[in-house]
Each structure stands twice: as structure tokens, then as C-alpha cells.
TrEMBL record, chain A:
Domain Cyclin N-terminal: 33-131
Transmembrane annotation, as ranges: none
Keyword Lyase: no
CDD domains for this protein: CYCLIN_SpCG1C_ScCTK2-like_rpt2
Top-level taxon: Eukaryota
Native source organism of the sequence: Starmerella bacillaris (Yeast)
InterPro entries from the UniProt entry: Cyclin-like_sf, Cyclin/Ssn8, Cyclin_N
GO BP, sorted A to Z: regulation of transcription by RNA polymerase II
Gene3D superfamilies the UniProt entry points to: Cyclin-like (1.10.472.10)
Pfam families for this protein: Cyclin_N
Full protein name: Cyclin-dependent protein serine/threonine kinase regulator
Automatic annotation (TrEMBL), chain B:
GO molecular function, one term: RNA polymerase II CTD heptapeptide repeat kinase activity
Name under which the protein is recorded: Cyclin-dependent kinase 8
Organismal lineage: Eukaryota, Fungi, Dikarya, Ascomycota, Saccharomycotina
One Pfam family it belongs to: Pkinase
Localisation per UniProt entry: Nucleus
Cited PROSITE patterns: PROTEIN_KINASE_DOM, PROTEIN_KINASE_ST
E.C. code: 2.7.11.22, 2.7.11.23
Family under the similarity heading: Belongs to the protein kinase superfamily. CMGC Ser/Thr protein kinase family. CDC2/CDKX subfamily.
Domain Protein kinase residues, every copy: 25-353
Catalysed reactions, as listed in the record: L-threonyl-[protein] + ATP = O-phospho-L-threonyl-[protein] + ADP + H(+); L-seryl-[protein] + ATP = O-phospho-L-seryl-[protein] + ADP + H(+); [DNA-directed RNA polymerase] + ATP = phospho-[DNA-directed RNA polymerase] + ADP + H(+)
Keyword match Kinase: yes
Main location: nucleus
EC top class, as a word: transferase
Domain of life: Eukaryota
Naturally occurring in which organism (per UniProt): Starmerella bacillaris
Amino acid sequence: MSGDYLESTQHKYWTFTKNELINIRKLDAPYARIRLFLGEQLNLLGLKLNCRQRVVSTAQVFLSRTFLKIRLEDMNLYLVTATCLYMASRAEEQQLHARIVVREAAKLWPRMMPTETSYLAECEFYLLEELRTCLVIYHAYNPLIRISKEYDLTPDEFQAAWEAINDASLCDIPLLFSPKVIAFAAMFMVLILRPELDGGRTPLAIKNRLDILSVSIGRRSTLDLTQLAYCIQEFLSLYSLMESINRRSVANEIEQLL
Amino acid sequence: MESLDDPMRRYKARRSRRADPLQGYDLLGYIAAGTYGRVYKALDRRHGKVVAIKKFRTERDERSNSTTATASKTTDTTSTNIAWTGLSQSAYRELALCRELRNPHIVSLVATILRHKSVYIVFDYYEHDLLQLIQFHGSQKRQRLPSALIASCLYQVCEGVSYLHANYVLHRDLKPANIMITAQGSVKIGDLGLARSFRQPLQSLFTSDRVVVTVWYRSMELLLGCRHYTPAIDMWSIGCIFAEMISLRPIFKGEETPVLPGARGSVFQKDQVDKVIKILGTPTLAEWPSMRAAPEYPSLASMRHHRRTLNEWHRRCGMGPEATDSLDLLGRLFDYDPDSRISALDCLKHPYFINTEFDKQNCFKHVDYVYPSRRITAVDVPLAGQKRKLPEV
Ligand SMILES: Nc1ncnc2c1ncn2[C@@H]1O[C@H](COP(=O)(O)OP(=O)(O)OP(=O)(O)O)[C@@H](O)[C@H]1O
């Protein structure tokens, strides 16, 4: 289903301001790095299970929302991660077998992942409740497809913006911004940070494009430029966290929580 | 007893201190058993209103596996004696879609409750459904449905379906039993357990579930094995519902050929096809060019030919020559070619709705009698009893 975003549960119940997120999470200080680490693990599991990007991204959103409702020490975080992927496969009508999810997760996270399938089903049940059974997720991919035509992105730029959207799901961006803002921010990230993807345009061509961008974005009354700026800022802090994170120590941290 | 290595131990301890939301409802009776669960009538004490609670059973699919695992395990690690199993995909869909959809002509969800290893969806309570009205007229009142009621129901159904289609949702199981009506005559489309998004299906809508649409309401392209689902399949079902309101019995009442358990693919529903072509005539390639590509086209081609008798059918239902609008609309809903079949939005603009006198909000407006209330059976088992013992589904 992909009707009117403004009428969606995502917009009504699951979009927050930065301050709201801080208030909800005051107890979970190490959240950002744990979330990033688990998000990367979730991507790996999705890869092992041959999941489509949309399934994995939906799972990432479920994971972020779940952490607004449970505490990090409440449940085995690997079980939670695997369950989010399982639920996303069902919500996106690409159902994986619970048994296979558990088997692959146990291979990926030996000793950490409970091997009994019934735990996955039980966890799914609790998460459905915590998520208030809101299972329809609006991603930034569709808006990106629309604007990439409008702004004439090269295939490489498009690909890079697509990947930026994937990265965004590892942090709070999907909880903070509308899919459209995320798509624009992803595009900007690429245009600003990856000029080599431009495909050898002349300076004049680049300037022309910047003109189109600035004029048309400025004119878009529905695109909030402040939001766009904040979103780009979130992107920048995500990438700096990605570079600085010590994955082994985060893994230990999670083990401590178990 | 909770085991120490339960991966959700702390969460469960916390959760067990929360109030059980089911305690906010008083069970008034039992309404019906559907394919996926049971429906109860209850009083929502907090909002002071009557609701319908649909309780889903959990999937049996994974159970065989996990039950044996639990049984063979030494008892010290079991925290519960029944293994957890997943929810049915149908429950998933209904939860996801009813949460998201909001329209005056779609059943409205009040709450979802996950307790006692079951999923409960709380809906507004609807006093009537279209099947009940049709049956009442057919067996007790023994007279046709008032034309204002037919037009109003059809109009409201089309409004609901055009909302679904605008949101890229196919209902896939439209039939009189799934059309709810409030005591005030407002029509609500229910049972979204088969509904699917068709915007960007990750899989062909065909592969994931084989059984769609009760056979009597199944469109010709589905009967011929087409795998490309479009909103047109819902429009065909609306045509069947329209016809059923006119004649008080299903227009194409075929005998369903059972699908053998474990069989791959679908079976050709020969009797159903026969019932359809006896009234609509054998479809021709001229009226439906892409029919040639349908998997079951050869099966159809080998069947006896029939000419179209829809006009006679319409007349036999007591519809006079003045009812050309109704006949025309019916014909457009039964357009064999899904690509040219009328859409829900276009239905709303059809002359039938302009030339018929009816009320767009209240299908009982011009009706001078009251339909009997929904039959409720008393239940002595509480919805969620003290010993967590719920009525079995
Ligand atoms: N909100 C409601 N108010 C009153 N009665 C209802 C309501 N919802 C459902 N019912 C009754 O319960 C019956 C079964 O509900 P529903 O169709 O949703 O279940 P189901 O398990 O999907 O059934 P099936 O697919 O076999 O039609 C309906 O035909 C209707 O009679």
C-alpha cells in the first residue's frame, strides 16, 4: 500500500522531533553505536537470506521503532534484530520461513542467537504489540526515483543516492524526516560529497544544474529547507560515526547486556 | 516459572505488570466463525460503545516443528507449555491494512490487542451485512430489495473500493458477507484478510497465495489462470454483488473444483466458467484480445459455446425495459477484458446513479421497515478468562 503519506501511521505516530527522541531515550546512552552495529548486522543477515532491499530497509525501520519502546537490556538484541527482518519479510509479502531465519541468524551470531524457532514467534508477537501493528513503511526510494528524473542524475549518482538512503536507515533519519526530505538529502549528499560521480560534466553544465537545483528547490513550497539541512546534518554525523565506531567493542557491549 | 536463559525475560517481567487491554471489554456474545478466526460482540467500556472483536488463531504451519522440539526437551527450560507459533499472513494483512486505511466505507479499526497468544482486532460493530439482507428478502420477505437500497449499497461499495484502489490496495474477496451495514444504513467494506498492495509487488501477486476470491465472485481472467492481478478483479466481484442484490441469489453459482492438498498451481474451475458463459456468452477474442495468452484459454475453447443471455436474465429478475442503466452498468462490470472493465471511480459517474433515486449515505433511507438485528449467540466462556483459557478457534 502506498497511498497518501500524510495520512499514514508513519506520519501520524512514528515521526518525531530530535528532542522527542532524546527524551524517550534518556536511559539508553550508548544507543547510536549499538543501533548502527545491529543495523549492519541486519544488513548481513538480509544478504545471507537473499532479501530485497525494501525488506531489509523495512526491517531497519522496525528495529529503530522497537528501540523507542523497549530498553536495550530488555531482550536479546540479536533475537530482536532477526525478528525485525522476519516481520519485514511478512509485511512486504516476501515471507521467509521462521526456521530458516533462525538458522541463518544462529550461524551469523553463534552463541548469541537463541536457536529455538518459537522464540522468534514469541518475539514477533511482542514486537507487533510494541509497534502498534503499524507495518506499512514509506521509504525514500520512490521519491528518489521521481526526483532523479527531474534533476537528471547520472546512473552512478542515482546508485550512490540509493545507497545513502540505505545507510540512513541505520540511524534516526527515518524517524525524523519524511521520505521526500530524505530523498532530497541523499541526493545532496551525493552531489556535495561525491563530485566524481558527475560523469565529467563541464563547469558550465555543473553550474546549470546547480541553478536548476537551487531555483526549483527554493520554489518547492512543500519542501522544508530547514528540515533538509537538519537531515543532511544527520547524514554527516552518521558517516562520521561509521568511520569512528569500534565494532568489536560494541559487540562486547551487547554481550554484556545479555 | 521463568527460565533464566529466556532471551526476553526482563521484557516479559515488565510486560506482565501492564494491564490486559482485553479487560476493558465485556463480552456480549458470539457472532460468527470465519476462515481465520472468530468474531465476538462486546462492549467497549472505556468508549461506551459496542464493538466487534475478531480473534485470530495462530498459524499451525510452524507448529509441528516447534511442538516436537518442546515435547522432546527436558522440562526445566520450558517457560510456557505451548510453543509459540506465528500469526497467519492473513492476520498480518488485516492488521497492517486496517491500521493504515481510513475511509467512511471501510470498516474502522478501534484497536489491536495482542494478548494470550492471540491477536484481537477490535472494530466498530455493524448491525447488518449485505448477505443477511439478501437472505432476509429471499427467504422471509420474499420480495426484491428496494431499488434505492440496491443503488445506495452499490454506490457506497464503489466509493470504498475506489478509495482502496486509489491507495493501491486490491481487496480480492468482495462478496455480500464482507459488506457490512450499520443500523443507520452506512455501508462498510470488511475483511481485508486477502487484501494486497499492488503498487510494487515484490513477488507476482500470484505466487504467494493461490486461493483468491470465493469462486462465485471470481473474474473470468482469474478463472482462466491469468496471473496479473489488477483492480479489475474487484470490479467483477462488484458486478456479482450487484447482480445478487437484483436477483437475491448468486448469479454465477458454480461448483468449486477442490484443489488437492499439495497440488501445485491452480485447477481449472470448469463448472464456474460454465455458469458464467451461460449468461455472459462465450468470450470472443474480438472483445478480449489478450485472452489468447491466458493459461486456461485452451480449456475454455474446448467447452460448449453459449450465446449471451444477460438481457433475458435481467428481465427474468423483474427488471423492466426502463432499467437500461442497471443493465448497462452490469454489462460494464462484467466486461470480459480486464483492461476495459469499468473502474470504481467511473462507476460512481455512471448514469445508473444519476437516474436512480437513492441516498448516498443511508441505504435504508427510502425503506419503510427495519431489518432484523444480527443474530448473536450467547457464550459462557469469557473472551479472556482468568486461566488464560480462551474460546478455542
Ligand atoms: N465489525 C463487525 N460487526 C459485526 N459483525 C461483524 C463485523 N466484522 C465481521 N462480522 C461478522 O463476522 C463474520 C466473519 O468476519 P470476517 O469476514 O471478517 O472473517 P473471516 O474469518 O475473514 O471470514 P471469511 O473470510 O470466511 O469471510 C462476517 O461475515 C460478519 O457476519
